[in-house]
Amino acid sequence: MKIALIGYGKMGKEIEKLALERGHSISVTIDKENLNTFNEETFKQSDVAIEFTQPEFAVDNYKQCFKNNIPVVSGTTGWLNAFDEIKSLCKNENQSFFYASNFSVGVNIFFEINKKLAALINQTGGYDVEMEEIHHTQKLDAPSGTAISLAEQIIKELSTKNKWALDSNKEEDLSITAKRIADTPGTHAVKYSSEIDEITIEHKAHNREGFALGAVLAAEFLQDKKGVFSMKDLLNL
């Protein structure tokens, strides 16, 4: 495949490395300094685009891909207030879009464990829940998209929580603590506490390779498909 990389930071470079190892080529790299590249033939002839940028640019990037009939895989977080718009646009224009708040296979297994544990706690009662996420200092959004996904799963299963909030002391809130520490790929922990014990589940990334590999696998999966897809489709979850 000829892959267009939209966003050429640390993640973009890791995706490039893994894509080349898997026999693909990079048709073009686009960053905020060369947005005019969207109009060039090298971009328009790409088989797929992989997009890891910032939330203020993401939606326009997707629209550029749709405009040129290029399937797009995105891992940018913090833009989901426009998700319904992009979903409708993708379907109405018969385009291809793959979104995940986290492309790590391990994290997506963690998602399934998280849902099951929340359902079990809801049946038994007696526990309060809180979350913590830790990322590198360059990550601008807080909490992370992965933390929000985990929190929304818990709220759906757990009748004692109505919404998530950063550093909340309200009993009805699922409190999330977000920390930013240099050179930290990502850690997410969910802790249930009662008067007699604690249950904690945690996922800790050692590097960016797992996220990059998942994005390349998603790009491979998206070929010859139309519609909106996620890691559930890729992993048959």
Could you name the key traits of this structure?
Rossmann fold; Dihydrodipicolinate Reductase, domain 2; five-stranded mixed sheet; 237 residues; single chain; alpha/beta
What does this structure look like?
- The chain is an alpha/beta fold.
- The protein folds into two domains: 2-103 and 209-235, Rossmann fold; 105-204, Dihydrodipicolinate Reductase, domain 2, CATH 3.30.360.
- It is 38% helix and 25% strand.
- It is built from eight helices and eleven strands.
- The chain has helices at 10-21, 41-44, 55-67, 83-92, 105-124, 145-157, 209-222, 231-235; strands at 2-6, 25-30, 48-51, 72-74, 96-99, 128-135, 163-166, 173-180, 187-193, 198-204, 227-229.
- The strands form two sheets. It has a six-stranded parallel β-sheet, with helices on both faces.
- Strand 1, helix 1 and strand 2 form a beta-alpha-beta unit.
- Helix 1 crosses helix 7 (209-222) and helix 5 (105-124) packs parallel to helix 6 (145-157).
- The protein is elongated.
- It starts with a strand and ends with a helix.
- 38% of the residues are buried.
